[in-house]
Fold this sequence. Notes:
By secondary structure, the chain is α+β, with helices and mostly antiparallel strands. The protein starts with 24 loop residues before the first helix and ends in an 11-residue tail after the last helix. The protein is globular, with a radius of gyration of 20 Å. The strands form five sheets. It has a five-stranded antiparallel beta sheet with strand order 5-4-14-13-12, sandwiched between helices. The protein has a three-stranded antiparallel beta sheet with strand order 6-11-9. Helix 3 packs antiparallel against helix 4 and helix 4 crosses helix 9. It has one domain: DD-peptidase/beta-lactamase superfamily (Beta-lactamase, 3-Layer(aba) Sandwich). The chain contains ten helices and 14 strands.
Amino acid sequence: MTKGLISRVIASVALAGAVFAPISPAFADSLESEFDRAFVAPAPQRPPQLQAPASAVPKVQPRIESAQWTVSGSVRPFVAAPRPALYATPLDAQVYALADSSAGRIGVAAIDLSTGRSVTVLGDTPFPMASTSKIAIAATFLDGVDQGRLSLSGSYPLMVPVKSRKYSSLVAPVRPGAMMTGQQLIERSLIHSDNTATDALLAAVGGPPAVNRWLRATGNTGLHLDRDIATLVRDDGEYDPARVIDSRDSATPKAMAQLLSGVYQGRWLSANSRAFLLATMEQCVTGKHRMRSQLPGDVVVAHKTGTLSNTSSDVGLIQTGDGRVYAVAIYVTGQGGHAGRDAKIAEITRTLYDGYQVESTGYRVAVQH
């Protein structure tokens, strides 16, 4: 059996020219760091007539629509619940201790796919998907391939952002860029977290509504996409995710873990599309200090990272040396900065790995708020 979750069925395509040049792991990770730092400064104020409340934690506002932009009413302050008095197992207690929300809320969901044994913290609470949404976007495109509406060999234009002010329009302006095949777009989106390639996939499938339809059809209702990546990035920083829950472009950790489980188990995609998606996720070069960093060398991780203002995430499938597979979704806010969030993701991942390894019986325990 070759190393990896599945045999690589489609080789990476060599990209020519500057726009097609491969991105090194170090450079890709530095891009994530730069992206995170770019949003440390407060976001610009909205137009005076639609300015957010001055309170530290925004109150839920009715949906306001204008010719310029839209304010979601699905925003609420995060209120931490008390920890359970008792834990089902030592692993649950360890994960809860690591996912303490005093320095920023943390969501965790993990499933041992061989037993169904799960551990969750804030499992049903929405967190910013950031670039972890790219898994659902790629899966929607591949479903279109399976149905004959789209093609991995067909050509589609990159969607390149055009500079615009925050909140100045409902959708951030983009322009068509270089043409790429569907395969190249998925590879750049999932391996290098390329936003222009992701928006090209989104445009090809029919935008966020098409992704939401696919998610609903597969029963994954805990994930929801509202904006393309260009708009999401331009308008990032509107709320502090460590203290505020904004359900736009969000996923609950449990729903993301279930999406990963279903993809791995082949519930929604053809064998070829499943194989390509998982093989591409195995090649992800971002987040070198996150999920993979503390795992043993014989462990294979097919994953996708996400980074936005004051939030970092890593979600994926972890295959152990003895063939067991865990679906894991970790969303972290606050923690003092980018490095602190990375360290928290790495520590929680290793704790889950060790805990699952020592548990000898197959049983399901769900601990969540």
